Amino acid sequence: GVASPDTWVCESEQEAKNIVSRETALGHKLVLKPLFGNCGRGLQLLHEAALLPAPEDVNGVYYLQRHISSIDKKGRDWRVLVVADQAVAAMERVSEHWITNRARGGKCFPAVLTGEIRELAEAASRAIGINYAGVDIIQDSAGNYLVLEVNSIPAWRGLQSVTEKNISQWLAEDLLGLCQHTTAASQAVC
User: Fold this and answer.
1) Which of 4, 51, 63, 180 makes the best surface tag, with the fewest CB within 10 Å?
2) How many CA atoms lie within 13 A of 86 on its CB side?
3) Which H/E stretch holds residue 172?
4) 75 — phi, psi (to 5°)?
5) Of 42, 52, 48, 47, residue with least CA distance to 13
6) Phi/psi at 148 (nearest 5 deg)?
7) What values do phi and psi take at 77, rounded to 5?
8) How far apart are CA 153 and CA 148, in angstroms?
9) d(C-alpha 165, C-alpha 178), whole Å
10) 145 contacts 85 by C-beta, under 8 angstroms
11) Entry pTM
12) DSSP bridge partners of 28
């Protein structure tokens, strides 16, 4: 129930080629994402099946997502930090390139957590069932917000640079709260 771009995961190179061919025939580009990536490394923009790498170059798994151009055609998205089911901070990332990660040259700016972005980030985090998440959200050319991905171990250096809130304190307090809750629950059982 969380709005996100169409995404496919397959282990067959032929199936991946079929997906890319079908999508590009419809005028869509696809983003090939590594299963375990970070800081925008390993992302590839595909506009034809011939660009698809060999299975050994993707550890035998093709993770494809329809490319979404941002509303202003620049590289622009939001990273929202969610801690204990609450969106606590956000930044807007802007780049001249379609990859907006700070490590790839994206610029970070403070962002106000609007109701729609807040609700979408919190819903995405709840859907995954994790206490701490970096939720990447993009606004498409029609003005709709979509979740690109939910990061369970998000980098937050860029976010800390544009917020006065102490991110490490939030994370530590959340962890301590979980430990206290777990200890209290185990003592109640004994």
Assistant:
1) 180
2) 5
3) helix 167-189
4) -75, 110
5) 52
6) -80, -45
7) -155, 180
8) 15
9) 21
10) no
11) 0.85
12) none
Encoded amino acid at 42, one letter? G
As beta bridge partners, residue 139 has 145
Q: In which element (H, E) is residue 34 found?
A: none
DSSP 8-state symbol, 105: T
Asked whether 1 and 123 are in contact (CB, 8 A), the reply is yes
Q: How many residues does this entry show for the chain? A: 190
**pLDDT, tens only, 117-150:** 999 999 999 999 988 899 999 999 889 999 999 9
Strands, DSSP E only, in the chain?
Answer: 7-10, 30-33, 44-46, 62-66, 75-83, 86-95, 107-110, 132-139, 145-151
Q: Can you tell me the distance from the alpha carbon of 35 to that of 67, in angstroms, rounded to the nearest whole number?
A: 17
**Cα angle, residue 95 at apex, residues 92 and 98 outer, rounded to 5°:** 105
Q: Cα–Cα distance between 139 and 82 in angstroms, integer?
A: 19
Note whether 83 and 54 are within 8 A (CB): no
Q: What number of H helices and E strands is found in the chain?
A: 4, 9
Q: Both tokens of residue 8?
A: 């496919």
The distance in angstroms from the start CA to the end CA of the chain is: 39
Predicted pLDDT of residue 187: 58
